[in-house]
Write a structure and sequence with these properties.
single chain, alpha/beta, nine-stranded mixed beta sheet, seven-stranded mixed beta sheet, binds adenosine-5'-diphosphate
Length: about 550
């Protein structure tokens, strides 16, 4: 027997409409590439998004077409999210930190018909335009009087001129909630990037789930500054979650250094933020050096790579900011787990609570997870056994765009598909998951596994260390052994032996790094994560002492 409730599709346009109607005067503030601050409201954003949708449809963009962006976090990018998705086309956010050749490859693979870009990225557009024959126009996201000219780009269009051609009478179409709304490619640290194609339904459900109190816990009383870029898995869904709850948004644009962020946090009364660990290193360094405190900042989500425990402690103890450690991936929209304490933990000591908060956390309803061995047999949730982490849920991909890589799922005895995350993890009896490593980074020493994340987290806790990475290097007897690569803090001194001794009593003896190498910087990938592949190449000819 069927239930008798309305079949109202879950559409991204519905989120913005809701925000415009119920939080119409709530602000969206953006630092523009030009350097100034732009402010307007959800009502303005919704009206301009409809105008843009109308203009794009007059230009021939139709259901399912892909429209790409190369852009920072800002109000025009937000309008594109809603205009393109809302009209039934697909917003394809591209990471501008990738190599232009790779960007051109992605544009062609996605079949993008238009590409909108912030002025910062004109050189990329100039480099790729001739190689992207399907792109009908290149839309410069700038005021008309700032429109660039370029001999190398045919069909250079101005965003505001385009938008002005659209009518404010445009009404959002009611489309199938399973239609594609967004496209995001994985960063492709191994092989070609692969596209995750989100639906309206998956995006709306993810936005709901993210807002839950034990997930991100966003509310209309918050002022949220997403440092995580809108080209990095849709800024972890915040451009959808913020309007869903009616939170004020502050977009930082291109200025992501500690000082600029701090100024914006203070001037706009930011209560909440989200970003990868590397950006917070910059912010923490700035506030410490300047000897300042935050007056409104209360909570931040940190994920994308493991958040060092020292960072969680620094935020809490020095600045009174709660860190919510989170884990996810492009293929998961991205949220999988977030780490918040439950009632049962509140009676425990602060040290025990800190141990829990260092984990990647608990799943949100909508994500199911398990750990398995190499034969896909399920492993126990004892907090010790590690295995390959598999997930399933309504905002997890079923397959990659254009069927790239074949069927990625692994099927259980009941025929249910699970997505293999490529991560190795433990899950404890309370369901808290902890990432041990990416399966390709874990060090296999004498048939046992060593977690590079654990070793890095400890090294970052050393007062002389600015950043640390651990990779496996070949060893004749043990196959692989850990090599610690260190960037020292400016002016700090520490020796190889001191660093190795620092691990004593903190890890099993056989986990201790065999050697330390000091470097000026550690290579970071397009989303600010340590590029282990590059680091392994860099140390390709390195031999351990005595090996
Ligand atoms: P890419 O793999 O292309 O960089 P993602 O941004 O989707 O793209 O990265 C997802 C991966 O990032 C996860 O599979 C995991 O390895 C890592 N990751 C994300 N969050 C965390 C975290 N909190 N701790 C450890 N690793 C994390």
């Amino acid at each position: 027997m069927q239930g008798l409730m309305m079949d109202m599709p879950l559409l991204v346009s519905g989120i913005l409409q809701h925000a415009a109607r119920h939080y119409g005067d709530t602000e969206i503030v953006s630092r523009r590439v030009e350097g100034d601050l732009h402010r307007y409201t959800y009502a303005d954003c919704e009206r301009r998004s409809r105008q843009l949708a109308d203009a794009l449809s007059r230009d021939g963009v139709s259901i399912g077409d892909r429209v790409a962006t190369l852009a920072w976090n800002g109000y025009r990018h937000m309008e594109l999210y809603y205009a393109v998705g809302g009209m039934g086309a697909v917003i394809h956010t591209i990471n501008p930190r990738l190599h232009p050749e790779q960007i051109a490859w992605i544009v062609n693979h996605a079949g993008d018909v238009h590409l909108a870009f912030d002025l910062t990225f004109l050189p990329i557009v100039e480099a790729i335009a001739a190689h992207c024959p399907n792109v009908k126009s290149w839309i410069a996201m700038a005021d008309e009087d700032r429109q660039p000219a370029s001999a190398r780009v045919v069909n250079l269009v101005n965003y505001e001129t385009l938008l002005a051609r659209g009518s404010t009478d445009y009404r959002w179409p009611e489309i199938d909630e399973r239609s594609a709304a967004g496209l995001c490619y994985t960063s492709g640290t191994t092989g070609n990037p692969k596209g995750a194609m989100y639906t309206h339904r998956s995006t709306v459900l993810h936005a709901y789930a993210a807002a839950l109190p034990d997930a991100m816990g966003a509310s209309s009383r918050d002022c949220i500054l997403p440092v995580v870029p809108m080209f990095h898995v849709n800024a972890w869904g915040l451009p959808y979650t913020c309007p869903l709850v009616g939170a004020k948004i502050v977009f930082p644009g291109a200025q992501l250094d500690g000082k600029s962020l701090y100024e914006l946090f203070e001037s706009e009364g930011v209560t909440y933020s989200a970003g990868v660990p590397t950006v917070w290193l910059g912010l923490l360094q700035h506030v410490r050096q300047a000897g300042v405190k935050f007056s409104s900042f209360k909570r931040t989500v940190i994920g994308g790579s493991a958040c060092p425990p020292a960072m969680i402690r620094a935020f809490r103890d020095e600045f009174g900011v709660e860190v919510i450690h989170a884990w996810g991936m492009t293929e998961m929209s991205p949220l999988g787990t977030l780490c918040r304490l439950q009632n049962r933990h509140l009676r425990q000591s602060e040290a025990a609570q800190q141990k829990i908060l260092e984990k990647q956390g608990h799943v949100i309803f909508g994500v199911d997870m398990k750990i398995v061995d190499d034969e896909y047999r399920e492993l126990p949730w004892d907090g010790k056994t590690f295995g390959n982490l598999l997930v399933r849920g309504p905002w997890v991909i079923r397959e990659y765009f254009r069927g790239e890589g074949g069927d990625p799922l692994k099927y259980d005895a009941d025929g249910r598909g699970w997505f293999p995350t490529g991560d190795v993890a433990t899950i404890d009896a309370d369901g808290y998951m902890q990432i041990t490593d990416r399966s390709k980074d874990v060090i296999k020493s004498g048939g046992e596994w060593i977690s590079t994340i654990d070793l890095e987290n400890l090294a970052i806790g050393h007062p002389a260390v600015a950043n640390a990475a651990v990779i496996g290097v070949p060893h004749p007897k043990w196959d692989e052994r850990p090599l610690l690569v260190i960037v020292k803090k400016p002016g700090a001194e520490v020796t190889r032996d001191e660093l190795i001794a620092f691990y004593e009593g903190k890890v099993a003896r056989w986990w201790m790094p065999d050697d330390v190498q000091f470097v000026e910087s550690i290579p970071l990938g397009a989303t600010g994560k340590i590029l282990k592949t590059k680091l392994r190449e860099q140390f390709h000819d390195y031999r351990l002492p005595g090996a």
